[in-house]
């Protein structure tokens, strides 16, 4: 829960705190029954007296917005009429996680194996293809200071083993990070992974059996489609619109196909850049609780917002343990550090830990310590502000070049994330366009990879604007224009 106070403001501190919490409640960023930090915790977070927080909470209680119970703590009590009806109907099913593990994951594995991942970088052409952060945005000075401090104080620790589920100090810092995302969890609900892709792989291999149905947004991240299909799952696409996944179609498919999981990227969706609306998020959670269907929420881009209101994650709206949340530092700091995390019920984390030992003893210890110190020293927030400004300029530059050079192309302007989703005229052969573009020295990903049926006839391409430099964006757009003109001349 992020609260900003201004000590130079004439408005009393407790009023500032009260007003911001009240606004979050009214806007539904803090849903009904959300447990607020204790007075002591919030006072420590904001560096104010506990009495200041107490006065803010008392004012909110007087307005009927929050309440406190012994053993439960302070929680949001405000709800509208629809929420009262939903609560009184009490039609939510209880989810028994043990019943949906796949057959392989029911075994306990005593032995462990380490896997070394090798990556290659090809910089021969201007690439709009990868989901990669800008190399120039890496916080070199901050990480140099982090390394120096660690080498003086924790040199031996940096090269020792780590628990399979992750370094406890890093998990504490991620716990604070999740609190800023309106998600209140214990460290036992967190597992550190080698990026969110490993998290997705662990969850899929732990729960998905052959012929299980997985519902995904369509289009969606091709890595998820490939993973689910490799496991023998039947991957079924649910169309999206500008508000996110179509919940009417989703509920129809749930009734028809009885899926094992739903996979969703609510924030700045890959590849479309679409952000699921607040209303749609509530509708989605209502449907999954009604039918007892868990969700894998993939949130690699949530921090990279350029405009618009911040929205609660599905996990923040999850009151009954339906959401397995995935995130990563790969998109905001560095792809090479390979540090991500999972947030899930504790019993799920324990089962994932057993399965993780088969492929990865633990995430790189040095990377865990470096990320932990980066967060602890307060560098993370300033770095996020920096890359938001840099990527916003790059997004707008690519949009400017598209508007100048491609009058025939339609595209969606995302509020954050990494991508522009561009639609070409039906007359354009996208396979031929890609062939000519590569010859002309510019690369991107065509849309067919993002659909559950790879032969899907779609006229979109995905362009990444974060990795290339400003000059490369301009040159790359000119090369793409040249490639398109060559097709028109055929």
List the helices and strands and how they pair.
Layout lengths: L12 H14 L12 H8 L3 H13 L3 E4 L3 E4 L4 H9 L36 E2 L12 H14 L14 H13 L9 E4 L1 H13 L5 E6 L3 H9 L3 E8 L2 E2 L1 H11 L3 E4 L13 H14 L3 E4 L24 E6 L11 E4 L2 H11 L8 H12 L2 H27 L4 E3 L6 E5 L6 H10 L2 E2 L1 E2 L13 E5 L5 H19 L2
Helix pairs in contact: 1-3, 2-3, 5-12, 6-12, 7-8, 7-11, 13-15, 14-15
Describe this structure in words.
The structure is a single chain. The protein has 490 residues and is of the alpha/beta class. The chain folds into 3 domains: 13-89, Arc Repressor Mutant, subunit A (Orthogonal Bundle), CATH 1.10.10.10; 138-378, Type I PLP-dependent aspartate aminotransferase-like (Major domain) (Aspartate Aminotransferase, domain 2), CATH 3.40.640; 381-488, Aspartate Aminotransferase, domain 1, CATH 3.90.1150. 40% of the residues lie in helices and 13% in strands. It has helices at 13-26, 39-46, 50-62, 81-89, 140-153, 168-180, 195-207, 222-230, 247-257, 278-291, 346-356, 365-376, 379-405, 430-439, 470-488, and strands at residues 66-69, 73-76, 126-127, 190-193, 213-218, 234-241, 244-245, 261-264, 295-298, 323-328, 340-343, 410-412, 419-423, 442-443, 445-446, 460-464. It has an 8-stranded mixed β-sheet with strand order 4-11-10-9-8-5-6-7, with helices on both faces. Strands 12-13-16-15 form a 4-stranded antiparallel β-sheet, with helices on one face. The protein has a two-stranded antiparallel sheet with strand order 1-2. Strand 8, helix 10 (278-291) and strand 9 (295-298) form a beta-alpha-beta unit. This is PLP-dependent aminotransferase family protein.
């Amino acid at each position: 829960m992020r609260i900003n106070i201004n000590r130079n403001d004439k408005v009393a501190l407790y009023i500032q705190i009260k007003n911001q919490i009240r606004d979050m409640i009214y806007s539904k960023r803090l849903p009904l029954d959300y447990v607020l930090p204790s007075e002591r915790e919030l006072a420590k977070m904001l560096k104010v007296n506990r009495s200041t927080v107490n006065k803010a909470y008392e004012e909110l209680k007087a307005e009927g917005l929050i309440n406190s119970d012994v053993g439960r703590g302070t929680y949001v009590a405000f709800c509208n009429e629809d929420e009262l009806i939903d609560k009184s109907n009490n039609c939510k099913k209880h989810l028994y996680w043990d019943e949906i593990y796949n057959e392989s994951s029911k075994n306990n594995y005593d032995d462990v194996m380490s896997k070394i991942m090798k990556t290659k970088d090809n910089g021969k052409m201007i690439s709009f293809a990868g989901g990669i952060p800008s190399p120039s945005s890496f916080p070199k000075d901050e990480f140099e200071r982090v390394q120096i401090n660690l080498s003086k104080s924790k040199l031996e620790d940096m090269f020792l083993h780590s628990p399979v589920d992750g370094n406890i100090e890093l998990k504490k810092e991620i716990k604070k990070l999740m609190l800023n995302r309106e998600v209140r969890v214990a460290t036992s609900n967190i597992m550190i992974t080698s990026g969110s892709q490993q998290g997705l792989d662990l969850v899929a291999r732990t729960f998905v059996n052959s012929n299980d149905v997985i519902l995904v947004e369509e289009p969606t991240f091709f890595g998820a489609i490939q993973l689910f299909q490799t496991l023998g799952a039947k991957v079924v696409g649910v169309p999206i619109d500008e508000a996110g996944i179509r919940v009417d179609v989703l509920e129809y498919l749930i009734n028809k196909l009885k899926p094992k999981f739903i996979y969703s990227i609510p924030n700045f969706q890959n590849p479309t850049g679409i952000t699921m609306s607040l209303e749609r998020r509530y509708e989605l959670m209502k449907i999954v609780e009604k039918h007892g269907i868990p969700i894998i929420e993939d949130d690699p881009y949530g921090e990279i917002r350029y405009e618009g209101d911040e929205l609660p994650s599905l996990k923040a709206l999850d009151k009954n343990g339906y959401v397995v949340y995935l995130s990563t530092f790969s998109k905001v700091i560095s792809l090479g550090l390979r540090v991500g995390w999972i947030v899930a019920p504790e019993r799920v984390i324990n089962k994932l830990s057993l399965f993780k030992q088969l492929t990865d003893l633990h995430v790189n210890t040095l990377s865990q310590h470096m990320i932990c110190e980066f967060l602890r020293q307060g560098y993370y927030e300033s770095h996020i502000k920096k890359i938001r400004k840099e990527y916003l300029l790059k997004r707008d530059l690519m949009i400017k070049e598209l508007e100048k050079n491609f009058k025939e192309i339609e595209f969606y302007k995302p509020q954050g994330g990494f991508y522009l989703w561009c639609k070409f005229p039906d007359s354009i052969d996208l396979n031929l366009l890609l062939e000519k573009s590569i010859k002309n020295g510019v690369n991107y990903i065509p849309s067919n990879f993002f659909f559950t049926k790879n032969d899907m006839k779609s006229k979109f391409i995905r362009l990444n604007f974060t990795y290339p430099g400003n000059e490369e964006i301009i040159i790359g757009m000119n090369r793409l224009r040249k490639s398109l003109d060559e097709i028109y001349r055929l």
